[in-house]
What we know:
By secondary structure, the chain is α/β, with parallel strands linked by helices. The chain is built from 21 helices and 28 strands. The strands form six sheets. The chain has a nine-stranded mixed beta sheet, with helices on both faces. It has a five-stranded parallel beta sheet with strand order 4-3-5-6-7, with helices on both faces. A hairpin with a 5-residue loop joins strand 22 (484-485) and strand 23 (491-492). Helix 16 crosses helix 19 (553-567). The protein is globular.
Amino acid sequence: MSGPIHAAPPDAGPCVRGRTIPDLLYEATDAYENPQALNQPTEEGWVPMSLDRFRQRAEETALGLRALGLTRGTKVALLLESDVHYCVVDMGCLIGGLIDVPLYLSSAPEQMQYVVDHAGAEVLVVSNPKRLDQAAAWLPNLPRIETVIVCDPGPEADRPDLPDRVTVKTLGAVQELGRSEVEDPSAVIAGLRAELDPHDLATIIYTSGTTGQPKGVMLSHENISSNAITSIAEIDDFETGPEGEVALSFLPLTHVFARMLQYAYMMRGISIYFVHPDDLVDALPKVRPTVFASVPRVLEKVYAGIKKKIMGMQGLQKRIGEWGLQVAQAYDTTQSMSPLYALKHAAADRLVFRKWRAAFGGRVKYIVVGGAALQSDLANLLAAADVTTVQGYGLTETSPVISYTRPQRNKPGTVGEPLPGVEVKIAEDGEILTRGPHVMQGYYKAPDETDAVMEEDGWLRTGDIGEFDADGFLKITDRKKALFKLSTGKYVMPQPMENRMGSDPLVDNAVVVGSDRKFCAALLFPAQDQVRALADERGLGAERDIEDLLTEPHIVDAYRSITQGANDGMEPWSTVKRLALIPDELTVESDLMTPTMKIRRPKVRTAYADEIEALYDDDGRTGQWADEGTVLAEV
């Protein structure tokens, strides 16, 4: 037995189906003229490309790729930065009836090789010489790849040695081929578009996975276009066209979240500025976006930066900053302000909150949050400063959005209500199931894997555990695979505890362990800059080695306090009894995080098996102790 089926609210708009992704571009160029639709970052600033120029470049790319001999359904691998080049090549592939296969830039060489080989890609497109060097390591093992296209080629002398079979072309040369080889480009483009069907496979996106080899998620044109059309449709005051919203894009377009949003922005004719995540802080005051997408960790770092700045203040300025933070922490988007609180809020807005908004560029209306759970406390705190977070939930397998919190019905701590056309229900074991036009066609060349998550009547098993509240808002409580059982027989969902601890600026990542043990413990990976800031505030010598600082009782007590706060209100068996402070960082490069920044739990448990054993060492130790550079403590 499963629970009732939940759908979009009764007043939601329609579910729009039957569109290809290029349809969204052509509808946009018919409706808008935006000279700054796409903006490419350079050392001198952003170079704009008009919406119509983008269409032309994408068409030329489509014609050039077909002139190279590529036919409908050919796979094209993309090793591209998340910028205008990516958008042009991606749209060119889609107009040309080709299937693109994006590669995560941070993936290990053997994983990139696996994806290109498994997908059967015949052409590789790279951004620049750096990415060509990256590809050179595995191209000898991929005999299907005979053409490599470089978007921004640089000096030809810088090219690495490649197999003799490989021909390197520039994107400009491919586009020129498209212009020169076709007598009537408009007629050929019209023919290519006529061949497209909304149910055609558009892309294969390989999910990084927390275990095993990545799986190729097959998404159709309609999967993504229906999601792009519907996701923004219910944001009432989203302003379209060149004078409308201004978007900043820094998330990887290799992920379907950022890619779907790019299509949604494009369809509404607004201006998009691309920027590398490392340059985000500098870009915000220059672009002054009204909307951008983020993962929670970025916002948590902003919050940590605010607290760090307040800690560094002196005298009256510090007291005002601390008071403003307290006012923000008391804000609740679901409640009306009392007259007294409204006065405090107005004063705090003048003195404090406007400075917080300035950190985002000064005019942000919406921050679209996805990829992981955003803590309700942080959502409320940002809302106090008049920055609305729109929390979404979904998977690569769902194109990606299943549900989101509409600005007019924003309920922090939830992921809102389903999109129009999307159905959601909760299985008997608590797993979230969904059905609709957003659900993938399956995993490429993996029927058994597909059958494991797809039910006969179209329901997709998400692998997430959740529940609907009394108002019909969905809450995500954990990953099904993350559940573990204590030796006492009690089941533990680690994510709520991890989210609570991880929301503190002092914690970079938290992993709760305890499978087949008597109690739960936590591996805490400190945010080292925040540890140093705390050490400086306490006069402990912030310049010391991080391993040394973590032994300081004041520092350990701060982490104890964080854990005790996270334990409040939890079931007794799911509270953390001991913690380990590990002076490491979980990264994609160390293979302990996926490219979508999800923790690879099995690999973390293996990497830190000794630390976990030390946490459960029953030799009667109490308080805090050290074990080969790691500080362990009772909570």
